[in-house]
Amino acid sequence: MSDNKKQEKDYTPEVTALLPEAEALAKSGKLQDALDKLLALEKLTRNAADLSSTTKLSKAAIQHCYDARNYPLVNSTITLLSKKHGQLKAAIQAFVEQAIEWLPEIKERDGEERWLELLETLRSVTEGKIFLETPRARVTLLLSHYHENLSLSSTAKDPKASVQTASDLLSDLQVETYSSMERREKTEFILEQMRLLIKVARQKDAEVGKKGTKDLLGGGEAEWVKVRVGGRKVNEEFLKEKDNEDLKLKYYDMMIQHALNQDAYLDVAKYYYKVWETPSIKEDVTNKGKAALEHISYYMVLAPHTNEQSDMLHHLYVDPALQKLELQYNLTKCFVTKELMRWPGIEALYGKFLQKTPVFSQEKRWEDLHTRVIEHNIRVVAEYYTRITLVRLSSLLDLTPKETEAILSRLVVSGTVWAKIDRPAGIISFRAKRSTEDVMNDWSSDMQKLLSLVEKTWMGMNAAQAAQSRVKS
After folding, report:
1. For residue 254, is pLDDT > 60?
2. If DSSP codes are grouped into helix, strand and coil, which group holds residue 215?
3. How many Å apart are CA 324 and CA 341, to the nearest integer?
4. CA–CA separation, 83 and 77 (whole Å)
5. Burial call 385-413: b when 16+ CB within 10 Å, e when fewer
6. Beta strands across the sheet bearing 420-422
């Protein structure tokens, strides 16, 4: 295969004369004679590097086979022409694209068997050829959808294996490296890879759930990792363009699914915020926009406390859009205000409504909300108390001493609060013992402030005395 060779001769007159003759032979039933004449001249044009003539002859040969509905001959001719010595890359690209255009018609008119034969022929011809990477990706996408649809049919022998095959076919394509593919089409391919990986992951997770065991990479964990890797291949700046809004919503929907699988509530809130920023969603204040904002507030309060989470929560709290949602605004206010929240009161105020929502209908997330309320209360207590008894703290948190100690220990380990428990005395200290250096530094700082005040006072008194002396004189 070469396109670098300089054209030695122009065979346009010969090709122009031969094409009608070959067409007449093919229509009269002498298809093989027509092919022999076309292929004989094709050899000459190919050796002379006449790209235009070679392309016309190759496409004509395959077209006559297709018009005769001789699909085995179509497949063999495509394979034969692609393997010819010194075949021109542009010629191969032309007749491959020509054959791809026939696929929908063949599937509808002649059935899936013939369609699959041509599909596999095209995949075989395009394999390993960089200049055919985009056609190969498109053909592979069709085959992947075929296997996925096969898993949904009642005649499927193994639906799960069909979905796995569909996912594997697309995952083998590294479309992010294809320079010949348009940016939007490339993004669509990556999103399709992610969608199928999520489908496979959910199937494997369901199987593991039935067995009741899960290893570190058991179930669909490997697929979830690939979803995250695929998500990093998508350019989020490209998704911000108005024409790509549909891709943006599809992308963040899958990233939300991934984050929920990992219980990464802060990431879920971030992704919903990206969705809410989409103009069409933000303008729909009654349906999609409202739902997105509600989910942002729910997952924000479910996320463990960090500096980033606290900053985002405070920004959300002052957003005018949230104030229109009374319940969500009040719930956010509870976590922003440095006051104790009693869980029975929260449960009575919000429990009936929240547990009907898709977010808190799962028992685990309701328990996570309870945990976040307790953690908030511990941070508030640590803000106002230097020491408190374990019994008193347990009563404030509406927990048993054992549960209080377990949650407090976790917060200490995570660095959220500093605390030390004196178990024999049953006293919790929220202030670390200060070192001698810290005490001396504070004392030095206080002395500097005191001396500065004395100096300012002395200068003021001198100024006043000077003023009085001037008045008297």
Report:
1. yes
2. coil
3. 23
4. 10
5. eeebebeebbebbbbeeeebbebbeebee
6. 387-389, 427-429, 420-422
Give the H/E segment covering residue 389.
strand 387-389
Burial 294-311 (b: 16+ CB within 10 A, else e): bbbbbbbbbbbbeeebee
| Bridge partners, 389 (sequence order) | 427
Burial of 365 (0-12, 13-18, 19+ CB in 10 A): buried
Question: How many CB atoms are located within 10 Å of the residue 248 CB?
Answer: 23
The identity of residue 159, as a single letter, is P
Binning pLDDT at 50, 70 and 90, where does residue 4 land? low
Torsion sign, CA atoms 15, 20, 21, 26: positive
How far apart, in whole angstroms, are the C-alpha atoms of residue 471 and residue 468? Answer: 5
Left, alpha or beta for 84 (phi > 0: left; psi -120 to 50: alpha)? beta
What confidence tens digit (pLDDT) does each residue in 185-202 have? 999 999 999 999 999 999
Evaluated on CA atoms 176, 179, 184, 185, the torsion sign reads negative
18 touches 41 (CB < 8 A): yes
pLDDT per position as a tens digit, 268-289: 999 999 999 998 888 887 788 8
Q: Is the pLDDT of residue 244 over 60?
A: yes
pLDDT number for residue 440: 81
Local structure of residue 388 (DSSP, 8 states): E
Angle at 165 between CA 158 and CA 226, to 5 degrees: 125
Q: What tokens does 42 get?
A: 């094709």
Q: Specify the DSSP class assigned to residue 125.
A: H
The residues, ordered by sequence, that sit 6+ positions from 198 with a Cβ below 8 Å of its Cβ are 223, 224, 227, 254, 257, 258
pLDDT in tens, 48-90: 988 999 999 999 999 999 999 999 999 999 999 999 988 899 9
For residue 421, give the 3-state DSSP assignment. Answer: strand
Structure tokens at 432: 């670390």
Specify whether the CB–CB gap between 232 and 244 falls below 8 A.
Answer: no
Percent of the chain residues past pLDDT 90, beyond the cut: 52
Supply the angle between the helices 245-261 and 265-276 in degrees, to the nearest 10: 170
Helix-helix angle 288-302:363-384, to 10 degrees: 60
Tokens 């108390």 correspond to what residue?
Answer: 385
**φ and ψ of 234, to 5 deg:** -85, 130
In 3D, which of 227, 298, 212 has the Cα closest to residue 259? 227
How far apart are the C-alpha atoms of 378 and 115, rounded to whole Å? 66
Query: Does residue 50 contact residue 80 with C-beta atoms inside 8 Å?
Result: no
